[in-house]
Amino acid sequence: MEKDTVISHYIIDSQEDEIKRISNELHEGVGQTLYSVFTGLEYLEGSMQEPAMKSYTAEIREQLSKTIQEIRLLSLELHPPSLASSGITAALKSYLKLYTSTYGIITELTSAGNERRLLEKQNIMLYRVCQEALGNIAKYADANLVHMKLNWEAEKVIIEIKDFGKGFDIHTGLAKRSGLAAMCERMELIGGTCLITSAIGNGTLITLSLPY
Amino acid sequence: MENQMILQMLHDLLVDVPCEFGAIAIQIPKGSDVKWKHAAGNLNDKYKRITLRYGKGIAGRVISTGTPIHLDRFPDNIIGRDLEYPIMLAEKLISAYAVPILLNGSAKGVLLVGRRVKKPFQLHEQKAVRDYTTKLEKVVFSHD
Ligand SMILES: Nc1ncnc2c1ncn2[C@@H]1O[C@H](COP(=O)(O)OP(=O)(O)O)[C@@H](O)[C@H]1O
Ligand SMILES: [Mg+2]
Fold first, then answer.
1. Which one of A74, A177, B41, B70 has the lowest number of neighbouring Cβ atoms within 10 Å?
2. What are the pLDDT digits (tens) for B50-81?
3. What region holds the Histidine kinase/HSP90-like ATPase domain (chain A) (predicted)?
């Protein structure tokens, strides 16, 4: 491996380890503790007689419940707890559900062929690249609809992310910022490829390919 | 119909302030998620599918803090990432002002107004929006 590649792997791996640690801490640590507090409040509320105190407690309980919910979603965005056990398709499915309710953009996911178990690193890199592509769509595409297709072929998996938005000029897009370039670099680091095609007025298609 | 009345109030607001977009997010029924229920001047219907994230973005933060928020030139000078501001992205807003709608003293809704050009909301415009919520508080929760 080239020296630069070794360094890129190292930086990404340590970042991902850190993100995973924070995500787990939120989900298992802080989230669980808050849940115990929530149960305690519920108990207190039940034994309260005074209506004003009771409704004040109910108000706090509701805030707490929303905080717990937001922590769960944050953890899903950071590093889905079930990525290793349930695989990339399931992880993307829950992410898309959250994406639609966050941005109001309708998503459709289809998966064809037999899903293979991927390495943890491949899973997380695919997840990140899809997140970047979806984030770009929410920010720039002006699209109401996204189609995501997973094709589990004999030798490789192909993931297509198609938006039906306004499209852009890839050369100016690549020159402007580094999100698109980083998507391709991430795919290359795990031995895959990333192809971006876009036409003004005709939406954008991102095609990821990863050999097993 | 209350909905018709609220929509008319939003349209009046757009003319009075003036601004290009106005929307109301509320929690109905009590205890559920907060969603955008009414909008005027919208570019698309994304707002209908959006559920506010507690404490995030302009509207989510208005709910969690109970105080008004002014963004003068999105995405500059914001707290957090631009991706945490779905309604700004969906409606291509640059300047926006959002205020809580109160039910029994706590923030159970948001009134948001926005512009698609960089034109911050002046103090008297902000006051006009806040005055509107007093009227709205009487009607938005009535079909609870
Ligand atoms: N799906 C898309 N639809 C329209 N334009 C896009 C899309 N994805 C990227 N772009 C354009 O490409 C540019 C670069 O994107 P990116 O490298 O991800 O940078 P960033 O997201 O940090 O602005 C964006 O500023 C935008 O103009
Ligand atoms: Mg980007």
1. A177
2. 999 999 999 999 999 999 999 999 999 999 99
3. 124-211
- Domains of chain B and CATH, by start: 2-140 (3.30.450.40)
Claim to verify: residue A108 and residue A189 sit in the same structural domain: yes
Q: Are residues A17 and A90 in the same domain?
A: no
ipTM of the complex: 0.94
Segment A76-126, tens digit of pLDDT: 999 998 899 999 999 999 999 999 999 999 999 999 999 999 999 999 999
Sequence-ordered list of residues with C-beta below 8 angstroms from that of A118, at least 6 positions apart, any chain: A87, A88, A126, A157, A210, A212
Both A105 and A191 in one domain: the answer is: yes
Residue B89 and residue A139: Cβ atoms within 8 Å? yes
Q: How far is the CA of B14 from the centre of ligand 1 (A)?
A: 31
Q: How far apart are CA B12 and CA B136, in angstroms?
A: 12
Q: Give the strand pairing for A204-211 and A193-198.
A: antiparallel
Question: How many domains, chain A?
Answer: 2
